[in-house]
């Protein structure tokens, strides 16, 4: 098993508190939770899945116009994927795909109860035409038939295998393992629908995919060092000196800034954590695992989800409490990740104690020495650590309104704009977009309530593991 393999705290189980309480008799198994989620997905129109069909249509029309033969193989393979997908009995389970498939999308704002129609021009998507569709046999050959020696990672939904293509390129093949065929198809399309449109040095590089028989495979460039989580909490922790940690923090911030503010559309990742940060051989971080990512229409302040997906220890209070999703929920998770980078402690320790709750009093007391990972042996740049500590303390503010946005985070991490942010603090409430009253509640959301909700979610998920 490779260095990145870890199941500890991999509680990326979908818990659906509202639905479960309405289905009290249901066994809270992971499967049931996933089914309930699928049920709700019928109502959820923010899923990015349909973009793939839109793209398929776009590629077809481009193909007609250009008559180019060079990419026709790839296009026909895309066609095959959707043909394959369409003949499966999944229609009933994925109505949102049909809603999303065409050039017009109807976005229903749950916060304002207003309908807004957004036209999606087919040219809008900057889809990567270079995406390769592999045959199953190619990937079986590359991964030694998905042998256990090639297994380098396992999450809640997938196993990841190291492989080598014929031309010598090292790859990581993510094989979706969790759920029924319909669920795997849905997860596959969801992740592919986002990642195929993301292109930044600090996001994982997808090379291609494969759908054959009941296999759903996503193919990425291999990150030779595995995940930040496996490194910082594993035996090779000593490789992460302070300068590398600082570089990693800056890189993740750049990647998240891109997703939130500079990508074609606002992307909320929803599962920012150390295990979802891959490292290149130069310790450049790359955000991966877009399985839970959401696209947020420009005109929305936020969206509400009834299913809480993500990882314990990284949840923002308003997400836990009200299912509110926006950039600030990612920023809270990023703050937890910064605390992890500074302290070397996991987001939830063996006693299930939250890193945020451990760090809060130290942040308030500005006790930097107590926060810093003892394994760094005082060998760190005090100014840089100070910037990261300050940024982390802002990111994990209980109130989303008081958390900085990613462009502010990026400058704060470099030690700029600190005073600016402090002086604007008083004004922020009036300048900030107005949230519904749930967020006002969130401001009163204290550590005790946070802990209680966290425990509630954990119990449900653990219950589901055991059943
Ligand atoms: N390109 C890659 N190179 C090296 N290792 C990888 C790569 N992609 C994924 N991994 C490893 O596999 C693990 C699981 O991958 P991933 O997070 O995509 O799976 P998942 O089932 O979607 O996880 P989660 O439970 O967080 O949703 C990662 O934490 C990482 O250690």
UniProtKB/TrEMBL annotation:
Question: Where do Basic and acidic residues bias regions lie?
Answer: 30-47
**By its UniProt entry, which InterPro entries does this protein fall under?**
Kinase-like_dom_sf (IPR011009), Prot_kinase_dom (IPR000719), Protein_kinase_ATP_BS (IPR017441), RBK1/2/STUNTED (IPR046958), Ser-Thr/Tyr_kinase_cat_dom (IPR001245), Ser/Thr_kinase_AS (IPR008271)
Q: Which residues bind ATP?
A: 175
Broad EC category: transferase
Biased composition of type Low complexity is found at 57-73
MF annotations from Gene Ontology: ATP binding; GTPase binding; protein serine/threonine kinase activity
Q: What is its EC number?
A: 2.7.11.1
Any matching Pfam family: PK_Tyr_Ser-Thr
Tell me the compartments it is located in: Cytoplasm
Domain of life of the organism encoding this protein: Eukaryota
Matching entries from PROSITE patterns are given as: PROTEIN_KINASE_ATP, PROTEIN_KINASE_DOM, PROTEIN_KINASE_ST
Cellular-component GO terms for this entry: cytoplasm
**Disordered: region residues:** 30-73
**Alphabetized SUPFAM superfamilies for the sequence:** Protein kinase-like (PK-like) (SSF56112)
Reactions the enzyme catalyzes: L-seryl-[protein] + ATP = O-phospho-L-seryl-[protein] + ADP + H(+); L-threonyl-[protein] + ATP = O-phospho-L-threonyl-[protein] + ADP + H(+)
User: Which keywords, in A-to-Z order, does the entry hold?
Assistant: ATP-binding, Cytoplasm, Kinase, Nucleotide-binding, Phosphoprotein, Serine/threonine-protein kinase, Transferase
According to the entry, every stretch annotated as the Protein kinase domain falls at 146-419
Q: What is its main location?
A: cytoplasm
**SMART domains xref list:** S_TKc (SM00220)
**Which PANTHER family does the annotation name?**
OS08G0249100 PROTEIN, RECEPTOR-LIKE CYTOSOLIC SERINE_THREONINE-PROTEIN KINASE RBK2
The record's note on quaternary structure and interaction partners says: Interacts with ARAC5 and ARAC10.
Give the UniProt family note.
Belongs to the protein kinase superfamily.
User: What protein name applies here?
Assistant: non-specific serine/threonine protein kinase
């Amino acid at each position: 098993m490779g260095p990145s393999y870890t199941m500890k705290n991999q509680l990326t189980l979908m818990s659906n508190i509202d639905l479960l309480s309405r289905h009290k008799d249901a066994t809270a198994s992971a499967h049931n939770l996933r089914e309930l989620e699928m049920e709700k997905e019928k109502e959820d129109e923010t899923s990015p899945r349909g973009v793939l069909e839109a793209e398929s249509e776009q590629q077809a029309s481009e193909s007609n116009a250009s008559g180019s033969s060079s990419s026709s193989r790839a296009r026909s393979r895309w066609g095959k994927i959707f043909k394959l997908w369409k003949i499966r009995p999944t229609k009933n389970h994925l109505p949102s795909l049909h809603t999303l498939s065409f050039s017009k999308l109807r976005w229903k704002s749950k916060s304002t109860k207003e309908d807004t129609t957004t036209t999606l021009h087919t040219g809008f998507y900057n889809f990567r035409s270079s995406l390769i569709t592999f045959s199953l046999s190619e990937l079986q050959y590359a991964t030694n038939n998905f042998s256990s020696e090639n297994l380098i990672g396992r999450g809640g939904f997938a196993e990841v295998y190291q492989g080598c293509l014929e031309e010598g390129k090292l790859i990581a093949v993510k094989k979706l393992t969790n759920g029924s065929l319909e669920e795997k198809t849905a997860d596959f399309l969801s992740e592919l629908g986002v990642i195929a449109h993301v292109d930044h040095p600090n996001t994982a590089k997808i090379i291609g995919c494969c759908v054959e028989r009941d296999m759903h495979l996503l193919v990425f460039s291999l990150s030779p060092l595995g995940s930040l989580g496996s490194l910082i909490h594993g035996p090779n922790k000593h490789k992460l000196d302070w300068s590398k940690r600082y570089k990693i923090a800056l890189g993740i911030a750049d990647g998240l800034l891109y997703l939130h503010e500079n990508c074609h559309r606002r992307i909320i990742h929803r599962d920012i954590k150390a295990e979802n940060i891959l490292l290149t051989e130069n310790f450049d971080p790359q955000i991966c695992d877009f399985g839970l990512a959401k696209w947020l229409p420009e005109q929305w302040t936020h969206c509400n989800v009834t299913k809480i997906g993500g990882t314990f220890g990284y949840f923002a209070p308003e997400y836990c409490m009200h299912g509110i999703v926006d950039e600030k929920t990612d920023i809270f998770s990023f703050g937890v990740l910064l605390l992890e980078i500074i302290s070397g402690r996991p987001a939830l320790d063996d006693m299930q104690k939250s890193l945020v709750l451990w760090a809060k009093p130290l942040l308030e007391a500005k006790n930097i020495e107590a926060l810093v990972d003892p394994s760094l042996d005082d060998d760190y740049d005090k100014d840089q650590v100070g910037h990261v500590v300050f940024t982390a303390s802002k990111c994990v503010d209980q109130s989303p309104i008081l958390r900085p946005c990613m462009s502010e985070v990026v400058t704060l991490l470099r030690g700029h704009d600190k005073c600016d942010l402090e002086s604007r603090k008083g004004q922020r409430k009036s300048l900030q977009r107005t949230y519904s009253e749930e967020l006002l509640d969130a401001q009163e959301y204290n550590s005790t309530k946070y802990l209680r909700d966290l425990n509630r979610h954990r119990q449900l998920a653990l219950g589901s593991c055991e059943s």
